[in-house]
Amino acid sequence: MIKSFNELKKAVLENSNFILTTHVIPDGDAIGSVMAFDNYLKQNGKNVTIINHSPTPKVLQFLDDKNLIVVFPDEPERLAIQIENAEVIILCDANEYSRTRSMEDYIRKSSAVKICIDHHTGLIESEFDIAVCNIQYAATCQFIYDYLKFDNENFINHQIATYLYAGIMTDTGSFRFPRTTSEVMRICADLIDKGADPVLLHENIYDRMSKPKLNLLQRFLKSFEFHFNDEVVTSHVSERDFKETGAELNDVEGFTSYLMGIENVKMGILLAEFPKGVKVSIRSKGNIPVNELAREFGGGGHLNAAGVVFDKLPTGQIINTLLKSAEKFFNNKLT
User: Fold this and answer.
1) Would you tell me how many other CB atoms lie within 10 Å of the CB of residue 160?
2) Domain limits at 25?
3) Percentages of the chain per state (helix, strand, coil), in multiples of 5
4) Are residues 171 and 100 in the same domain?
């Protein structure tokens, strides 16, 4: 850990031109981590650009109130040149270049120092010049907190405290998922002392359900199907559902909680169609490794929370494929 932190600090001190990025369809930990590290680098006088493949979800846009994040597919030619000329490229909350989608080839070809700051399984260290990763961490934002404490905790201003708290809160499911340790709670207490507002952050992220999202939720709840003696529940929302309700892809955030809140359910699968593919979110309880299931299809994540994006295929076909692969986790075979 200290070795990685020293290497990261050395890269910060010796370079001036940085690019930060994160995974496709970013969540709170992804946005929180790039925003926090952007602020830290700028406090060090660095030139920083945050470039993501996906737009920031509406519910998280308040974290980027100055619109610092740019979207690669909006300006691919100009941003490709920036990637090419960068001195350092940092992937936050992602440990595979493929998770940056349209940016992958440009990042790989860049001569920049490539750094990974992450907490997911599946890291191939040889892919990066510096890897700061520990799968025991609850969030990438927890990692960045520890790094800033290692460097100089005075860097943790109220803005960084807000970003880091938001990332930890969302990646722990409001402090109810595994890895919500006493250390995580102590970190969040310190972030509150440094300016994070836990009430406002929870309200902004979880307590602002729009009417389109409410209408989408109704359709989602009607889509439930049970398998493996009711230990697995699958669900889906279609492109038509999004169009007719006026909801957006990221409005499905939090829907998996309804799946996992059902008595006796050990695994929940949510499919959400979008114009170019199907986003799949998989959740589990106990020792069912849904990250292994997701990795079979090019995705990844944690033991109990993972995801993958499929090419545009019928949702029924994707569900059957996933269920067939999930048979090994259950005593009852798929019928």
Assistant:
1) 26
2) 2-205
3) 50, 20, 35
4) yes
